Amino acid sequence: MAETTQRVLRLLSLLESRAVWGGPELAARLDVTERTVRRDVERLRDLGYPVQAERGAGGGYRLGAGRRLPPLLLDDEEAVAVAVSLRLAATGSVAALAEPAMRTMTKLDQVLPPRLRGEVAAVAEATVALPGLAAPVDAETLMTLARAARDRVRVRFGYAAREGTLTDRDVEPYRLVTTGRRWYLLAFDPDRDDWRTFRLDRMQRVSASTFRFTARPAPDAATFVRDAVTTAPYLHVVTVRYDVPAAAVRDRIPGTVGQVRELSWAPDGFGTEVVVGADSFDGLAWHLITVAVDLGARLRVVGPPEFAAVVAAYPARLAERLDAAATPGA
Fold first, then answer.
1. Omega into 304 within 30° of 0, i.e. cis?
2. How far apart are CA 62 and CA 79, in angstroms?
3. What pLDDT is recorded for position 65?
4. Coil/strand/helix, residue 279
5. What is the reported pTM?
6. Contact 61, 51 (CB under 8 A)
7. I want to staple 221 with a disulfide (CB 3.0 to 4.6 A). Which of 175, 214, 217, 312 is the partner?
8. What is the share, in percent, of the chain residues with pLDDT greater than 90?
9. Minimal CA–CA distance to 14: which of 1, 109, 32, 2?
10. What is the rounded distance in angstroms from the CA atom of residue 193 to the CA atom of residue 165?
11. Which pLDDT does position 57 carry in this prediction?
């Protein structure tokens, strides 16, 4: 009996690892006859696993979707990954997922072997979630948009612009992009005949329609969202360079703030280029100068000239402000 159970579990693991398996392949992997494979498939079906069988060329056995979720067979690394992910979800940015994640984590913890429970506990003890950095997103909104993008149906929602103006949108959803702090939707807006990005935390009354659309050639979602959040919304776009590695600069200028890239040719040593948007030169100059000071790096302004002038004058202006702050009664 123990041998049969081990073999059935091995069969399940194989079915989970690939979309389709031929009967002879499974028999060879399990070192049994095809008749035994068919009996073991029936055992899995009795346990609730929806194993489908297809005849003919290209056919075989596949693990399909059933009416209820059957037990999952996880190896050690997968079990730890799921447990850690659930702990993160319990303190994450998706609203309404914290409680289900906690319940699922409790169930998983009950069946984890002691050695794996210790690994998960070690990660949990060493991890602290800092609240307030992520914009909360409604879980139902996230699922509605994901299903609509998968099924290629248009979605409707109210959207609050940065200045607070509320408009009704009817768009073709393509991709969801997360920056860690926020979720964005890349969609084609037929009313504006252009691609747009939308922050999920600014959406209201999200609903999927029954109107299907034909997929269009879409831009790279990550690149489009990055450009949309770092430069497009702002009055000014600035380019600067530092003489330190790009990795060090990315630690202080994340992808949601500016675009950081390493130049392939930089004989002058200024090998890291940053493109960033802002509505005010003054605040941006302070931020970029602070990065240079923190890194012990040199800063060079590529453009525009107006920003270069602001940066050049900043030390004197800062000295004036410090003198004024230190003067009694000033």
1. yes
2. 23
3. 73
4. coil
5. 0.58
6. yes
7. 175
8. 36
9. 32
10. 20
11. 66
